[in-house]
Design a protein that fits this description.
With about 160 residues, the protein is α+β, with helices and mostly antiparallel strands. Helix content is about 30%, strand content about 35%. It has one domain: Gcn5-related N-acetyltransferase (GNAT) (Aminopeptidase, 3-Layer(aba) Sandwich), CATH 3.40.630.30. It has helices spanning about 15-25, 30-40, 85-100, 115-120, and strands at about 5-10, 45-50, 55-65, 65-75, 105-110, 125-130, 140-145. The radius of gyration is 15 Å and the shape is globular. Bound molecules: coenzyme A.
């Protein structure tokens, strides 16, 4: 979908983001949490727009000074497998690099093969398993992407 535009979120986008969230997750984040993410970290929250309609979003927060966490990425079911999530993630990585972030971390359900393939295609690497991380007892896979090589003094 070459004509997809990726831009930072705006307050008026919330209704459509909630729709996409509900269509994408059985344990969807509530509207209030998505609004908080938009307010807390607007530069880490991007939307994909096609023909004036929001079709996907990605959200992240910078947790410590140089580490960001991916909170959520979702594309409306009608628009999947066209490279939209990849575009959103690639733009996010670019934004985070510009903000001097060294590493991006995420957790993903072990069964979410689509998301795991997406993250691997962007260079994320599996790091560890968090047993029974989700409420329904499923394990999480922790993945990370280094944006800069670790400095020699990092672990001193
Ligand atoms: C995961 C998700 C965001 C992918 O969105 P998308 O726009 O369809 O993904 P893309 O088209 O950009 O796919 C990029 C790559 O990811 C992988 N991928 C994406 N969907 C896949 C699927 N259903 N099966 C296997 N691989 C998949 C592929 O490697 C794909 O590249 P390819 O199409 O060249 O093979 C989307 O399926 C979704 O919203 N799922 C529900 C929410 C979710 O699970 N989010 C992730 C956890 S926070």
């Amino acid at each position: 979908m070459p004509s997809v535009e990726v831009r930072p979120v705006r307050a008026e986008d919330i209704g459509r983001i909630v729709e996409i969230e509900k269509a994408s997750f059985k344990d969807a984040y509530p509207r209030s949490l998505l609004e908080n993410l938009m307010t807390l970290s607007p530069e880490g929250f991007l939307v994909a727009v096609w023909e004036g309609r929001i079709i996907g979003y990605v959200s992240s927060i910078v947790e410590r000074r140089h580490t960001a966490r991916l909170v959520s990425v979702a594309v409306h079911p009608h628009y999947r497998r066209r490279g939209v999530a990849w575009r959103l993630m690639a733009e996010l990585v670019k934004t985070l690099k510009n903000k001097d972030v060294d590493e991006v971390l995420l957790e993903v359900r072990e069964s979410n093969k689509a998301a795991i393939r997406l993250y691997k295609s962007l260079g994320f690497q599996p790091r560890k398993i968090l047993q029974k991380y989700y409420e329904d007892g499923e394990n999480a896979l922790v993945m990370s992407l280094r944006l800069k090589p670790p400095s020699a003094t990092e672990n001193l």
